[in-house]
Every structure is written in structure tokens, then in C-alpha cells.
Amino acid sequence: MRGAVFIKSAFNALFYVFVFTMCLPSKDLFGLPVRTILFLLMAASIVYLWFKHQIKFEKIYWLVLFVLFCTGIWFVIGFMNGFRGEAVQQFTTILFLISTVMIVYFLVANRLVNQEMARRTLYIVMFVMILGKIIVELFVVGHLLSLQSFRFLYGSLLGANNITLSVPGLNLFRINSANDSLVLALLSFYLIDKRVGFYSKLFAALAGTYFVLIVYSRVFFAQYAGLMFIVLAVAFFKSRSKKKILLIASSVLIMLAIFQTFNSGGVGSSTGGHSSVASAFNNRFNSAGTKISDNTRTEQSAYLLRDIKKNPIFGMGIGAYDKQLIRSQTNKYSYEKEYYALLMQLGIVGFILIIIGTVLVFVKLISIRKVSDRMVQVMILFNLAIWLIKPLYNPGLMSSTSASIIASIIIVSFCYQGAGKIGEYS
Questions:
Q1: Which of 4, 152, 279, 366 could bridge to 169 as Cys pair (CB 3.0-4.6 Å)?
Q2: pTM for the full model?
Q3: Closest of 319, 405, 395 to residue 362, by C-alpha
């Protein structure tokens, strides 16, 4: 009994630290696999509680085991087809995704951790990620931190790959990391949380705007615009003080106008004195670099469709990739056209059993129908839709970032199950 009590007490500390590590752009910190170590400790603790009958077995777990069993079959197929290192790498990634989500669900559903504290920890993670990126951006733009030092910071200390380039039209450097999408998922829930004050939401919206400009991604622009539209539209009709809602919208527009004025002919401008937010947005959607990126995706589609036709039913196995078209030397099986890549690897049968099976498991674990707040339900559906749409253009569906996003949605979902309405919109 004492052992079980000690394990439950340790869970809270382990869990909050694990959630906090979601702000890291990779699983490593200073060369140590911090997130993996925490993951293994929590997994071992859950196994202990399982044998002590502290965790109930649910029917959905059979589907989880079935998905993992199918993943193992397609791992063997990939391994036998010669994609051995890649098969191990992708199989480990999928296993980490499903296991992380399951561990978070175990802890939250069985009330082994404080749900409200978990929610607050997620908000801390969001602000750490936003403010951390803004501070680094200001240091780089202000020449207090060189690009070489920045890349060392991300590469050597944080073990992460990132995209850095000058943003035409703005005195900014694009800094894009794999886990950036977690910020917008958390921000969407923060902005509709009735327990968060108005000015905190205003600050988060403005900081989020700057964050999105730094990330400088078309998908991010669309996602941020979508979530802000939902937040402002619903809050406008439900809030008692519509002036506050108008203040949020106008503050974002004013911030963009300040960027326009400050950067007009500013340092680092590449538009000859005509820098503006508008030109930066236009460049992101219509520049030569954008066209090259789109052509790359078109090329990937052609190659991957050709590979799919070779074995459309069962695919080439986990870890498979086209040796004539390698997007990343680190993750050779990864392509922007992720759904095509997964169909090439798993075939129609494997895609249904593993990918659709995983999606069904996650949707079931989120238990959206039990969420008492309709606005939270809408935002959960919005984030799930974004999660499923992104693989059409960027990889990440079966990744550690997806694990963080789905785990965060589960935590938020349980915070609103049976809670009823908590206050009014600020």
C-alpha cells in the first residue's frame, strides 16, 4: 500500500515535469534524452500500479493493442524489405506517439494527477515557448546573438533542427521548429478559458501574433486566423462587454501596423524601402521560394504515387522511402506529403488499420461528448481538424509533436468533463 501511495505521489512531480518538457523542440536537453527518461519512469510506474490493480482495464485498450500489433507487422515488412534502420526509427516514433498519449490518459482518467494543475502547466509551457522564441528572435535581430550561436543553441544544446532565414518585408528572422504547432493548440484553449482574465488573453493574443510572424508558415497563418475568428466571433456574441472583444481585434491590427511602420525601409529590409507586413505575407504565399516548395511537393506526389502503385494493398513497410527522392537525411521516410508517404509504406490495408485506427483511439480517449462546454468542444474539433489536415502539406501526424498535441487536448477535455460552466467570458 505504501508503495502505491508513493508511486501516486511521485506521479504528480514526474507528470508535471514531463508536460513541461513539451516546450523542448526535441526529446533531448544538453545531449540527454530527458523526455524519454521521464517517459520510461512513468511507464514503469503505470505497470506497477496495473499489477496492484490501481488502474481499470477499458475496452478501448483492446483497440490500442490491436493497432500496436498491426504496427509490428508492418515493421517486419519494412525490415524485410531492406529499410532496417528507418523501420526501427519510424516504429519507435509511432510507439512513442501512442504510448505517450496512453500514459497521459491513464494518469488523467484515473485521477492520479491533479487535472487543474496539469492545465495550468500546459499554459506555462505555452508562454515559455512563445516568450522563448520572441526573446531569441529579438536577440538575433538586435545582433546580440549570432546565427551561428543560435544554431549551436538549438542543435547542440536542444538537439533540434530548425529553419532560419531572413523574412523579406519585415525586420525578422524566420525561426521554425517541429513543435511550434503545439503553441497554437494551447493558445486556442487559453483564449476561451473563462478562468483567464481579459488582459492576460490580450497579452497572449498579441504575443501569439508575434510568434506566428516569427514562425512564418502559411499553415500557421491560416490556423491562427481560424482560431482567432472562432474566439472573437463566439466571444463577441457571448461576452457582456463587447468593447473588450473589439479591443483584442484592434490591438492585433495595431500591432501589425506598428510592424509596417517600424520596418518601412528598416534594417535588414530587402524591399528597398517598401517593407511592410502586407509584402511579407504576399512574399510567403507568392514568392519564388514558395513556388519551389510547392513544386517539391508536386514532385513528391508523383514519386510517391508511383511507389504506391507498386504495392497498393500492403505497401512497402514501415520505414520505406523512395531512394530517388529523399527529403531528409535524418528521417528518410518523412515527406511533406505525409499521407502519400504513409500509403506507400502501409498500403490501403495498413493505412486503415494503423492510421485510421490510431485516430479512432485518440478521438475515443478525448471523449468530446463528455465535455460540458460547447466552446471547448468546438475548439477541440478545430484542433483535431488542423491535426488531420496538416499532413497534406507537412509531416508530423505520427510524431512526438502530435503526441504533445493530443495529450494536451486530453488534459483539457478532462478538465471540462462534468465541470459545468465556470464563470463568464472575460
A1: 279
A2: 0.85
A3: 405
